[in-house]
Amino acid sequence: MVPAPLAPSSVTLEQALACVRVSPEDFDLGAEVATLRAGDPGVGAVVSFVGTVREWQEAARAGQPALMELEHYPGMTERSIAELVVQACRRFDVRGVRVIHRVGPLAVGEQIVLVAVTSAHRQQAFDCAAFLMDWLKTRAPFWKKEIAGDDARWVDARESDEAAARRWQDAEGRA
Questions:
Q1: How far apart are CA 64 and CA 149, in angstroms?
Q2: Which one of 29, 57, 77, 103 is least enclosed by Cβ atoms within 10 Å?
């Protein structure tokens, strides 16, 4: 089923939930973008971001295979991301949004997240994608653990991610 273009000022949480998937399953960027664009002649821009699991220094130095394991609260995580999608759609003039975040064990090089946005014009799509990624990195309820051999550590939020998210806040500190 091809999703209808979003009406930015009136996107509901239910519509936004249909734009979000949290799953251990991998995704196909081309297929996701094609579905997002399908049947919408008003699309003039498509912006996508795919994040991948990168190797971290400790594992590389130890010469050990590395994994990142992501945990979440099913239902709560999807709703939290959908609330971000609603905010993004109300803030930016976009026609479609797709957010996919993987969970479970992921090896270095595997895809971990997709944010894809369609709009009539490029700047709205770029800004919306950046907004969503900045808030996903800092506010979405995921817990990440890096595992290399017998060593494992939980990953803390980085100050640079928090600073990136702050640029989108209003005077009251809301997204």
A1: 6
A2: 57
